[in-house]
């Protein structure tokens, strides 16, 4: 992890976030945080909902 964090443009917080997400994905409770699979499903559902939104609503209010 230290090697990754030492690379230019990589924040020291990124490896920590990866480890936290790995813990969540492995079943560790993080206060209701979503697993990667749940995040992916939520993203997919939002895209479907956005695709179903009539475009006329977007242009009705400039």
Automatic annotation (TrEMBL):
<protein>
    <recommendedName>
        <fullName>Transposase</fullName>
    </recommendedName>
</protein>
